[in-house]
Amino acid sequence: MDSLKIILDWLSILAIPLILFLFLGYGYYKKVKVYEAFVEGAKEGFDVGVKIIPFLVAMLVAIAMFRASGALDVLTYILSPITRLIGMPSEVLPMALMRPLSGSGSIGVMTELMKTHGPDSLIGFMASTMFGSTETTFYVVAVYFGAINIRNTRYALPAGLLADAAGLITAVYVCRLLF
């Protein structure tokens, strides 16, 4: 068992340098000018970043207004009877509501829950599991679809929200089962 741990430790130390040399070696083998290709990709990434800034600012302002207005607290109060039915503590509901909107907003909610209830509490485990098993769906749709001028997202939003709901319900179930 100790030899396996030593091997895994060495593999984790060498993983990134090996991947880097693998890419460079493959590029050299295929006669690709790796540095030039990297710089070109970085330029394109910067252009994308500049394009998404207006959508990002609009989304962050809307989320801040939603939280500051007290609408999140009202929605939590209204939905708390439903959360009790599925076994979700009402304290975790702001996390479930904020996660599809914003990663940083949900980190803020999760941090507050950790400070209040502790990381080893059911609420702490549930918030952490929800964070890891869901996506910032509205953020992704608003920023990335907006950056490439797609107005009709078709099934992306419903599919993303359905996946978020599955992740949230599964997080509640698994945390109730294990903790």
How would you summarize the topology of this molecule?
Layout: H1 2-29, H2 34-68, H3 71-86, H4 93-98, H5 103-117, H6 122-133, H7 137-147, H8 156-178
Helix pairs in contact: 2-7, 5-6, 6-8
What does this protein structure show overall?
There is one protein chain. The chain has helices at 2-29, 34-68, 71-86, 93-98, 103-117, 122-133, 137-147, 156-178. With 179 residues, the protein is mainly α. It has one domain (52-178). α5 (103-117) runs antiparallel to α6 (122-133). It has eight helices and no strands.
Structural class: mainly alpha
**N→C terminal distance:** 29 Å
Q: What proportion of the residues is helical, as a percent range?
A: over 70%
The count of DSSP E runs of length 2 or more, i.e. the number of strands, is 0
Q: What's the oligomerization state?
A: single chain
Strand residues, percent: under 5%
* Number of helical regions: 8
Low-confidence stretches: none
The helix-strand sequence is HHHHHHHH
Average pLDDT rating: 89
In short:
The protein has 179 residues and is an all-alpha fold. It has 8 helices and no strands.
Question: Keywords for this structure?
Answer:
extended, single chain, 8 helices, mainly alpha, 179 residues
